[in-house]
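[User] I have long wanted to understand how a fold can be written as tokens. Those tokens are not coordinates but codes from a learned vocabulary of shapes. Could you go through the record with me and say what the backbone is doing? Thank you; the sequence and its tokens follow:
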Amino acid sequence: MIVLEKKSLRLDIISVDEDDYNIITNDLNGYNNVDLQHTQNSIYFYYIAKCNITNDLLGSIKGCINTHHHCLWIQNISISNNVARQYYGTELFFNTVDLIRNDYNIEKILLTILDKNSSAIKFWKSLDFTKIHSFVKNVKNNKVYASVYEKTISKVINYE
């Protein structure tokens, strides 16, 4: 687990362990990406985002770092519906990348999006992610169609 913290423009980004992450984010009323990708031999991170002023929980992000391939895999990002479409997700994403990229020499960022999730596709494309692969996976006897998106680190800039 990574033990880092960061204050951004509006958020306090706090590192928590996996058990605390699951308990804390269970009540987060927002959009959740579905975890489809799990990477072996990686360093996992779990962050929650609280408002700098009110201390309210506004979002969370988790993923893993593959140090061998120098990539960051975003597995889940969630923002409270109360603050949706107010750029908190963007702020959380860019500040999380900023926390991690230099310590682990990250060259690219990957994530998986369900093909039917048009709002997530729109969000990640607005951050210059590009679709690089599509696949079908059987989940509980249902076919799930999803795609992998990628962004090179040279395209990532600081949000602040």
Observations:
- Confidence is low (pLDDT under 50) at residues 29-39.
- Strands lie at 5-7, 11-15, 43-51, 57-66, 71-79, 108-114, 130-139, 142-152.
- The chain has one domain: 5-155.
- The longest helix spans residues 88-100.
